[in-house]
Amino acid sequence: MSTLIANTFFSIILQIIPLGSGFMGGGAFGGGAMQEPVHWRDSVAYNTDGTVSLIITATVDEGWHLYSQNHKGTALPLEIKVDGNGCFKMTGDRFSETPEAEEHYDEVFKETELYHSGEVCYTMPVKVLCDSLFSISAHAEGQACIDGSCVPVESDFNFNIDPAMIVPLGSSTENTDTSLLWFFLIAFGGGLLGILTPCVFPMIPMTVSYFMKHGGRKQAVFYGISIVGIYLVLGVLLSAIFGQGFANDLSTHWLPNVLFTVIFIVFAISLLGYFEISLPSSWVNSSARNEERAGYVGTFFMALTLVLVSFSCTLPIAGAVALGAADGSFLKPVVGMLGFSLAFALPFTLFAFFPEWLGKLPKSGSWMGALKVTLAIVELAFAFKFLSVADQAYDWDILPRPLFLAIWIALFLVLGLYFLGVIKFPVDGVEKPKMGWVRGTMAVVCFAVLAYLLPGMWGAPLNAISGWLPPMNTHGFVFGKANEAMAENLAWQKNAVMDYDEAMDSSMTAGKPVLLMFTGHGCVNCRKMEQMVLADSVVSKQMKNFIICTLYVDDKVRKLPEPFVTAEGESLYMLGDKNKYIQKAIFHQNAQPCHYIIDGASGKVLKGPVFYTTEVEDYLEFLVFTRHPEL
After folding, report:
1. How many angstroms separate the CA atoms of 162 and 135, rounded?
2. What is the structure's pLDDT at 447?
3. What contacts 192, CB < 8 A, 6 or more positions away?
């Protein structure tokens, strides 16, 4: 209250003291009308570190400015007070401000002012100490000015906290660690697969024999370390390129996806034996010449030569690891290359310690050709996945779900017939491969995959791989009551609002809250959640109580009718850029899928966020619980 009295007193003083270019009493107030140049809204964000962020957003009218909490001059700074209770603990003594305050030197008072114009977001993380629902009250008061005319501003806020929505402290780290561990193991498996390729497998006995004659086990260990080091350097470079913030753009932009499609098709054809891909011979020869140097230098260049020579066989595998790492995590490319290179280097070092094991290695033969054909077919399947991502992001409509499935079905049919000996490729040579239990088993696996995919042509959901397929709304036709019911339950996709502001307006008109879905055309988990949860009949029925708003953060086609100006003053012209900015600036999230329930009139978060889940009951609890207590 004392601050409010001071604000009022200061405003009266300013009305009689000329500041800047004019007096207070004229046009600023329009004949004494009450001025409200700052508009407030509050929201809650549930963070992955176990805390909850109290978020206050202030939108300042054009021409006005709101003084920062950090302002030290004559004008009154903004002060935000939070009413304490036993259910939470503040993590700081002042709300953070985004963006940072502007600096302006006042010629009258000879001081530097700190203030905000446009939109500013104040954030305070708090630790939750209670297990049941509770509220946090806050009050903000400060001063806003225009052309030397100032008015006091204030607002009250009420944050509803649901402890059930909080991610337990440490679980995010555990999840990240688990994800990285699984990715390491997958990459390690890729390295083992790379060893079996014709470019690498025959090199093992030759390399081990060399170390038995020159340098022994120490050189073999250094050889393995050198291989790991070479791939780790690649991982660090990938981390620098695919750093956080760039990965999503890379993963959905048409150019890299079309480029990866072409690369995988070319390499697949090469693996089938129609032509050979190799690096420039000058690179390989230069590295090979340096092998003749004595000691560890020569050993390092032996490792480099192996990496270069095996390029045509291992790049598709190592490339798949690298592409799997491009999801925004800085550590993931490093972890992926570490796993791949450790497995790749392991046999060269291990057999140097136990040379007697060399006699137990399988001999090169037709199995290598079969492995190359398998890799080629898998690469072709991945190639069309890349093309599908660009197709969805840019609305090309060249690869709908039925055509995508038809291509995959054809690929696995070819692979199955190959293992049965019906089809041959140049990589097999003239000798007819023998039909053994391995080839028979692989043929059965291929036809089992084909049998699973085939009903998808008639609209079957194929939940096990739904995230990899184009969405159901690109199918065009379905057969059977179950499939027709699923299509009906997903009908909301065609009627969903795709702009945040339009959704807020529709919410006020219809008197319904907004179900806000941050999603992406290239988001695998988004497709799986749509098909396994949002296509459920009960969920679909509950969704009718909301204005559905799907915000595609990677949309590359839809242009905004007029530029969207951010709080930092940047103009955005594409809908996808606006959606991405809203998720980051207003909701402080960057993962998809990410769902909120919003009150359209106030912009308040009523419930959320909810991230990827395949549990229908959990999502129903999210939908039903929110409407009862809040609305």
Report:
1. 9
2. 95
3. 343
What are the residues facing 598 on neighbouring strands? 514, 605
Output the six-digit token pair for 546: 């909301």
pTM value is 0.55
Identify the burial level of 187 via C-beta atoms within 10 angstroms of its C-beta, where 0-12 means exposed, 13-18 middle and 19 or more buried.
Answer: buried
Please list the alpha-helical segments (H only) found in 145-215.
171-195, 203-213
**Per-residue pLDDT tens digits for 165-188:** 665 443 444 444 556 787 788 888
Write out pLDDT tens, residues 354-363. 777 776 776 6
Task: Give the C-alpha distances (Å, rounded to integers) separating 573 from 453, 550, 551.
Answer: 40, 18, 15
Q: What is the pLDDT of residue 11?
A: 44
Reported confidence tier of residue 369, pLDDT bands at 50, 70, 90: confident
Cβ(169)–Cβ(49) below 8 Å: yes
Output the six-digit token pair for 618. Answer: 């959990």
Look at 122-136, 212-226, 244-258, 606-620 and tell me which has the smallest mean pLDDT: 244-258
Q: Which of 433, 621, 618, 461 is nearest to 532 (CA)?
A: 461
Annotate 3-65 with three-state secondary structure. Answer: HHHHHHHHHHHHHHCCECCECCCCCCCCCCCCCCCEEEEEEEEECCCCCEEEEEEEEECCCCE
Q: From residue 269, give the alpha-carbon distance in Å to each of 255, 281, 319, 323, 380.
A: 21, 21, 16, 20, 9
Amino acid identity of residue 238, one-letter, is L
Could you give the CA distance from residue 78 to residue 390 in angstroms, rounded to a whole number?
47
Closest CA to 138 of 226, 54, 209: 54
Amino acid making up residue 262: V
Do residues 609 and 45 lie in contact, with contact meaning Cβ atoms separated by under 8 Å?
Answer: yes
Please report, as a single letter, which amino acid is at residue 113: E
Percentage of the chain surpassing pLDDT 90? Answer: 19
Q: What angle do CA 291, 294, 296 make, to 5 degrees?
A: 80
Which three-class secondary structure state does DSSP give residue 324? helix
